[in-house]
């Protein structure tokens, strides 16, 4: 069929995009006449249980930027007490470990200051002090550009455009998780509180593929994490099938009520979260590749290759999934089961088979979302649980039972959470998104794309 041929071409193009966009070059950079040791290097993330301030000092007046060694950098807490100090190395990088455990620093702010007296002559920093708020237990990165004096802080428009990049990345990942949740809810009526653990499962699958001995290469380019992301999608679907076969299908066969099944999903969530913590540990994890990727500068906006690939890959997956639901026989059967399972069964549709396929597809989307979250921001055993409420918010905001509703709701939530940090502290950005959900539902209870229905 022409449609099947088109979908195959889209899948092939999607695979080539992932290989070209995420795979690092097979050969080293071409020499530019400058000593490679003096170039400004990327900071290598640490692999321990502490939070570290990672940074680099670069002279942007040179192309490529040159490292500025021997510069003193200090870290102070909110009371002005110095808690750490370091000197930039030959490659311009520095690492300052925050004392104590990671959890002690969550929610606190620290000021990283560059000692201008230690800079070489005739150099001037564009900014000499940065304040960081620790919101997650990952290492924090700062950059001190040296060169011609620039604005201390970018304008609101530039800042908003930069935040939109992060918002788009988060939105496409959230949309995949929300679409999977919406599909399962639509066909089974189950409010699955363990859906976040399906997201975490995908991140863990990619992580364990990444930690296997050796490297996976094609043409000299390492693609270990790319294979991990693909494995997260495939194994995530298998895990969804196991969930349905071992737990949900037997409960449906016994006529278990939806409220009881919802409570079972809460228990399953707690059980899986503890299993993940036992095998993966409680610390934050990062994949071996793409932890510190040099960004492209488009005007005043910074965009990394991995962010672009995640956006395009996520959009392609969403378009393919919604097209399958909209135009194929399986998609029509899925919508029929969602609208009226009894009538769908009477017309010859195998309802249990449709539900089983939806579980596989929904869990595969959640697994892919978890792996891409790990690529863009790292992860821990609670990453799915932390975005579960936002996933529910996206589904409800867009309209329960609609194909496009979950996607639209995810983009509204994702972009709003990032752009709201222009006016509120970052730790309150999720609160603003939930307030937006409440306001819209007060005005339009059926959601943005839902249909109003008469009850009773």
UniProtKB/TrEMBL annotation:
Main localization of the protein described in the UniProt heading: membrane
Membrane-protein topology: Multi-pass membrane protein
InterPro entries listed in its UniProt record: ABC_transp_permease, BCAA_transport_permease
Localization per record: Cell membrane
Pfam families linked to this entry: BPD_transp_2
Record-annotated membrane-spanning stretches: 163-185, 223-243, 255-276, 308-327, 357-375, 387-416, 428-444
Membrane is among the record's keywords: yes
Signal peptide range: 1-28
Keyword terms, alphabetized: Amino-acid transport, Cell membrane, Membrane, Signal, Transmembrane, Transmembrane helix, Transport
Membership in a protein family: Belongs to the binding-protein-dependent transport system permease family. LivHM subfamily.
PANTHER family named in the record: AMINO ACID ABC TRANSPORTER PERMEASE PROTEIN, BRANCHED-CHAIN AMINO ACID TRANSPORT SYSTEM PERMEASE PROTEIN LIVH
Protein name: Branched-chain amino acid ABC transporter permease
Source organism per UniProt: Nocardioides vastitatis
């Amino acid at each position: 069929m022409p449609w099947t041929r088109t979908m195959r071409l889209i899948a092939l193009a999607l695979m080539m995009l992932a290989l070209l966009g995420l795979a690092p070059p097979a050969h080293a950079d071409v020499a530019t006449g400058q000593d490679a040791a003096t170039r400004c290097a990327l900071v290598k993330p640490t692999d321990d249980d502490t939070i570290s301030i990672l940074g680099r000092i670069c002279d942007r007046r040179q192309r490529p930027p040159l490292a500025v060694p021997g510069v003193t950098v200090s870290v102070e807490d909110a009371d002005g007490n110095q808690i750490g100090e370091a000197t930039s190395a030959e490659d311009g990088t520095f690492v300052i470990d925050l004392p104590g455990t990671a959890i002690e620093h969550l929610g606190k702010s620290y000021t990283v200051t560059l000692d201008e007296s230690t800079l070489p002559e005739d150099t001037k920093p564009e900014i000499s002090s940065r304040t960081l708020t620790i919101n997650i237990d990952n290492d924090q990165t700062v950059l001190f550009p040296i060169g011609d004096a620039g604005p201390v802080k970018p304008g609101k428009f530039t800042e908003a455009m930069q935040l939109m990049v992060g918002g788009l990345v988060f939105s496409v990942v959230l949309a995949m998780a929300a679409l999977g949740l919406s599909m399962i809810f639509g066909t089974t009526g189950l409010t699955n509180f363990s859906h976040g653990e399906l997201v975490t499962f995908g991140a863990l699958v990619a992580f364990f593929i990444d930690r296997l001995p050796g490297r996976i290469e094609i043409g000299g380019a390492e693609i270990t994490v790319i294979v991990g992301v693909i494995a997260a999608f495939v194994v995530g679907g298998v895990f969804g099938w196991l969930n349905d076969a071992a737990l949900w299908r037997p409960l449906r066969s016994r006529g278990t009520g939806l409220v009881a099944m919802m409570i079972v999903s809460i228990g399953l969530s707690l059980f899986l979260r503890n299993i993940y913590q036992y095998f993966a540990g409680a610390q934050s994890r990062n994949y071996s590749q793409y932890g510190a990727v040099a960004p492209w500068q488009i005007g005043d906006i910074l965009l990394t290759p991995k962010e672009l690939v995640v956006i395009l890959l996520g959009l392609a997956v969403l378009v393919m999934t919604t097209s399958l639901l909209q135009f194929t026989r399986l998609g029509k059967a899925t919508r029929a089961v969602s609208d009226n399972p009894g009538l769908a069964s009477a017309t010859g549709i195998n309802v249990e088979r449709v539900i089983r396929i939806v579980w596989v597809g929904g869990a595969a989307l959640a697994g892919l979302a978890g792996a891409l979250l790990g690529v863009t921001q790292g992860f821990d055993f609670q990453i799915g649980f932390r975005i579960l409420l936002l996933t529910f918010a996206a589904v409800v905001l867009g309209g329960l039972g609609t194909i496009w509703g979950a996607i639209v709701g995810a983009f509204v939530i994702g972009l709003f959470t990032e752009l709201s940090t222009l006016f509120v502290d970052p730790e309150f950005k999720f609160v603003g998104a939930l307030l937006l959900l409440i306001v819209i539902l007060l005005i339009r209870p059926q959601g943005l794309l839902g249909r109003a229905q008469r009850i009773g």
